[in-house]
Recover the amino acids of this structure.
């Protein structure tokens, strides 16, 4: 259901009309709206935002680890409409057991490396991604270093003179 502060925001109203189950929450802070989307409807919502409201630029994709809360992760998309001089933040909440959202590379090809980075550092899978593999860490790296439960200590080495 569309939150009260976003009832006059045309892109949010259009998404709710397209599919009432797509939006699960939202807010507007400092003039920038945030919509919480059901991950099952992410790609369809992004396509609509790009086609109808000219959100042609995907500025970034990142994630937030809310460990130990559940759902553990928020996958965050920053959209920009150059034509309308507008910005929009989309968030999808996913559980920590096997975090997964659909890839938006079919909407914005530039999502490719952003999604790979989130996969590499947080371990969030992007379904239907064309080349989901590590981008920053070595292929044989164990774990995902931006997770809050990732060990922050390294091996202790003793140096001999």
């Amino acid at each position: 259901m569309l939150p009260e502060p976003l009832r006059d925001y045309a892109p949010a109203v259009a998404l709710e009309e397209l599919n009432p189950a797509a939006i699960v929450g939202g807010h507007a802070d400092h003039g920038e709206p945030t919509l919480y989307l059901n991950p099952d409807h992410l790609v369809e919502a992004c396509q609509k935002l790009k086609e109808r409201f000219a959100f042609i630029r995907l500025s970034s994709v990142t994630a937030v680890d809310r460990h130990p809360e559940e759902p553990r992760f928020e996958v965050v998309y920053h959209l920009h409409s150059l034509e309308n001089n507008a910005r929009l933040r989309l968030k999808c909440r996913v559980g920590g057991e096997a975090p997964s959202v659909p890839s938006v590379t079919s909407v914005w090809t530039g999502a490719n490396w952003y999604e790979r980075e989130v996969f590499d550092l947080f371990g969030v899978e992007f379904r239907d991604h064309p080349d989901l593999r590590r981008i920053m860490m070595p292929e044989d790296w164990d774990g995902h270093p931006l997770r809050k439960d990732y060990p922050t200590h390294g091996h202790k080495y003793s140096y001999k003179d």
